[in-house]
Amino acid sequence: MSADTFYGPDFELLSKQDPDIAAVLLSELKRQQTNLQLIASENFTSRAVLATLGSTLSNKYAEGYPGKRYYGGCEEVDKAETIAIDRAKALFGAEHANVQPHSGASANVAVYQAFTKPGDTVLAMSLPHGGHLTHGSHVNFSGKWFNVESYGVRQDNELIDYDELREIAIRTKPKMICSGATAYPSLIDFEKIRAICDEVGAIMWVDAAHFIGLVAGKAIPSPVPYADVVSFTTHKVLRGPRGGMILAKAEHAAAIDKAVFPGMQGGPIMSAVAGKAVALAECATPAYQKYAKDVIVNAQALAAALEKEGMRAVSGGTQTHLALMDIRSTGVTGKVADERCGAAGIVMNKNSIPYDPEKPGITSGIRVGTPATTTQGMGVPEMQQIASLISRAIKTEDAKAHSEIKSEVHALTARFPIYTA
Ligand code: DSN
């Protein structure tokens, strides 16, 4: 299909005014349509969400909150933000929701600000074991401004070591304990974390960015009943616009809102806030609940099929939307695998595995996720085919072979078209 059919009449205007950027929009649309998207944190939003993002709400400044803004003319965007808040509270059974953070990282800045002061101790999962930059990496504000202690996974089963976590919490007395990760394929025991937080008097913060969409679809247990605060992005499995969100107990509502605005950012991006509302309504449907369950079934099928190809699934498999594969048996590093798959039209990322002997820029692993391919309608047979394509791509350095695999990728994605007119 042509881009003007998809983007509508405005694309013709853009093409005339700015052919350079119009060409980027067109080629990115084609890239998403024709390649395999296995980045665990990416998805294809609905056209309704895209339409909302490209709306005149983008023009409006609205510092403050509904009914308490610093600018006039906010009566319409107030409605959008109120709808988003109400939908978030209803979908997750949350006492409070702040829908303004521009991203997951900025939501996390607000969480630190609401509950801690620079120099305070925070306990979070280490990045090499699956955590996130904002969980205390020394190159991030969190590691520079806070005393972040880290817990990890056990070497024998690659699951969170709750005994170690408790021991570190008792020894270091953190103000806040963060659970949540970017490359942890298993479920987190929120009841255990709550008990540890209560024992040491820490705030329980869950960074649910990766799995909140599975919670929204009732496919895995929710952290909301346990946590003081839950931060997340809205564009991963949740399938909304790029952005962040925070849920909290009512007693923390004022602290969270103050930390987001004026503490962390100025005007919210109201087109994104409205887009979050649209996505939250989509998440409340039976179709989305089926989708969330299918995402996990597909991830499990993909992990199992990659194991049949000789790779090893970290922690023995997955209970979520992603699998972390130890690919040392193939004789190539994560970096090389990433490049070879890229040449074959398979988009995923190299990733450290727990206790990885390789540097973070090289790695012994790859991370594959199923949110996008499941949105396309792919199922278990396609996951098996994808595992075979990945394996073939990784195991050869021959450009001609990569080009042949790419043709097979294009044939597969053509059977599951996205963004058709
Ligand atoms: N960049 C995200 C991911 O890919 O996991 C985390 O923020």
CATH-defined fold name of the largest domain:
Aspartate Aminotransferase, domain 2
The small-molecule ligands in this entry are:
D-serine
How far apart the termini lie comes to 7 Å
The percent range for strand residues is 5-15%
Return the average pLDDT rounded to an integer: 97
Main beta-sheet strand count, sense and barrel state: 7 strands, mixed
- Helical region count? 17
Poorly predicted sequence stretches spanning 5 or more consecutive residues? none
* Number of beta strands: 15
CATH class of the largest domain: Alpha Beta
Structural class: alpha/beta
**Biggest sheet, spatial arrangement of strands:** 4-10-9-8-7-5-6
Can you describe what's shown?
Strands 4-10-9-8-7-5-6 form a seven-stranded mixed β-sheet, sandwiched between helices. A four-stranded antiparallel β-sheet has the order 11-12-15-14, covered by helices on one side. The mean pLDDT is 97. The protein has helices spanning 3-7, 9-17, 19-34, 47-53, 75-92, 104-115, 141-145, 162-172, 190-200, 212-216, 253-264, 270-283, 286-308, 334-343, 371-375, 380-394, 399-415; strands spanning 36-37, 64-65, 68-69, 96-98, 121-125, 147-151, 176-179, 203-207, 229-233, 244-248, 312-313, 322-326, 346-347, 349-351, 365-369. Helix 2 (9-17) crosses helix 3 (19-34), helix 6 (104-115) crosses helix 11 and helix 13 runs parallel beside helix 16 (380-394). It folds into two domains: 56-283, Type I PLP-dependent aspartate aminotransferase-like (Major domain) (Aspartate Aminotransferase, domain 2), CATH 3.40.640; 288-415, Aspartate Aminotransferase, domain 1. It is built from 17 helices and 15 strands. The radius of gyration is 22 Å and the shape is globular. The site of D-serine has 4 residues, from loops. It is found in: Cytoplasm.
